[in-house]
Design brief:
With 294 residues, this protein is mainly β. Helix content is 10%, strand content 46%. The protein has two helices and 29 strands. It has helices at residues 2-22, 34-41; strands at residues 27-29, 50-53, 56-59, 62-64, 72-75, 80-83, 91-93, 100-103, 106-108, 114-117, 121-125, 128-130, 133-136, 139-143, 146-148, 151-154, 158-162, 165-167, 170-173, 176-180, 183-185, 188-191, 194-204, 210-213, 216-226, 231-234, 237-247, 253-256, 264-270. It has a 19-stranded parallel beta sheet that branches. Strands 4-7-10-13-16-19-22-24-26-28 form a ten-stranded parallel beta sheet, with no helix packed on it. The protein is elongated, with a radius of gyration of 22 Å.
Length: 294
């Protein structure tokens, strides 16, 4: 009897959601109705691809793929939590997913909160991730996002974070990282990849705070606070560094490799002298504090 009742409820929810979507209206669902809404969300126009999530806890991994192109999962208000079971992420984005958006939700995972695999694209706005982020290909664009946990970017993927706070280490390998107006409370390590920073503050207890190996880096107004070495660079292309402040016990910069005369370096302010860097440093006020996040 219980199983029959549950089946009837699920059928009713799917029919109601399908009716709303067929009329081009965003569907509003709770935890029991999300699976049915996702099943039909890809069948309508742009308006019908928006699903409003009512407050509640949504358990189990949500898998989004090619059938969910243009999907928007939007929180109706505070209290919307997507929770992965065990070590599975709360949301897993798979190949073929394009222009998917998550707005105002909390993602929680014991190992990873959000994972992308292969060629996919997801946008985050006003989202909190408890458990970290893995970008295994594709792109993740985050605005006003808080991440509590490690961030891994690999497999030629891209992570673009603006006005965000990351509390955990960030590792980039054969991939791209873009940070703007953001704070990183943790170590940044980039290997055979690229990183671009604009108005970024990095605070790390580990040494070096920033490690670059055979990578490309550009930075405008970057502040690094380290317990030991601030920036370690080995065989890197640092074509543009404008406004760099490094505080800590040092050395501020540990350098291995060539330094090109064509590179644009301006306004360096170091607490301690660099190690291994040829030439004269462009002394100045360092990062523009008025542009940095608190």
């Amino acid at each position: 009897m219980v199983l029959v009742t549950a089946a009837v409820i699920a059928l009713f929810v799917a029919v109601a959601v399908g009716w709303a979507l067929s009329r081009g209206q965003p569907a509003a669902v709770g935890p029991d109705g999300l699976a049915g809404a996702l099943a039909v969300a890809g069948q309508g126009d742009e308006a019908s691809r928006t699903i409003t999530l009512l407050p509640g806890t949504y358990n189990g991994t949500i898998r989004l793929g090619a059938a969910h192109r243009g999907l928007r999962l939007r929180a109706a208000g505070p209290g919307v939590e997507l929770v992965g079971q065990g070590l599975s992420p709360a949301v897993r984005c798979e190949p073929g997913l394009l222009d998917a958006r998550l707005d105002g939700v909390l993602l929680r995972g014991a190992g990873v909160a959000l994972e992308t695999v292969g060629a996919c694209e997801v946008h985050l706005a006003d989202v909190r991730l408890d458990g970290g982020l893995v970008v295994g290909g594709g792109s993740v664009v985050a605005r006003r996002t808080q991440i509590n946990g490690r961030v891994q970017v690999g497999d030629r993927g891209m992570f673009d974070c603006a006005a965000g706070v990351i509390s955990g280490p960030v590792t980039v390998e054969r991939a791209d990282l873009r940070l703007s107006g953001s704070v990183l409370n943790g170590r940044l390590a980039v290997r055979s990849g690229s990183v671009a920073c604009d108005a970024v503050r990095i605070k790390a207890a580990d040494s070096p705070a920033v490690s670059l190996e055979h990578s490309r880096c550009t930075a405008v107004d970057l502040h690094i606070a380290a317990s030991g070495v601030g920036l370690e660079a080995r065989g890197c292309d640092l074509a543009e560094l404008r406004g760099l402040t490094i505080t800590g016990s040092g050395p501020a910069l540990a350098w291995e490799g060539e330094r090109q005369a064509s590179w644009r370096w301006e306004r360096f302010a170091f607490d301690t002298p660099p190690r291994g860097l040829p030439g004269v440093l462009p002394a100045g006020p360092g990062a523009d504090q008025t542009r940095l996040p608190p």
